[in-house]
Amino acid sequence: MLVLSRQRDETIMIGDEVEITIVDIRGDKVRLGISAPAHVPVHRKEVYDAIRREKEASGNGSKGPGPLVESLANRKKHAHSGGNNEPPATPPTK
To answer: pLDDT of the chain along its 94 residues, tens only?
Structure first.
């Protein structure tokens, strides 16, 4: 394992296409910004493990993601920059 020291607003490159930037440091938590092309999947480890478990359980990796992975992906997609996993409030309908 390569261990690097970085400060806020400094970046690490992985290959030519993936950038990892230290966005914020609060106590013992580090917020990372990851820029990667669409063809490079980026997941938190627990989401990645859930995807693998569901693929193994289905016996066929070509099926779409199961409900657990869809739920985790939706939480990730709807999380706002405040850092919590609560979905943003629904705007009023017209």
So the answer is: 999 999 999 999 999 999 999 999 999 999 999 999 999 999 999 999 999 999 888 876 555 566 666 666 666 555 544 444 444 444 555 5
CA angle 64, 76, 45 (to 5 degrees): 75
Degrees (nearest 5) of the Cα angle 25, 80, 77? 115
Q: Which helix (H) or strand (E) holds 35?
A: strand 29-35
One domain for residues 47 and 29: no
pTM equals 0.60
For residues 47 and 33, membership in a common domain is answered with no
Contacts of 77 by beta carbon, 8 Å cutoff, 6+ apart: none
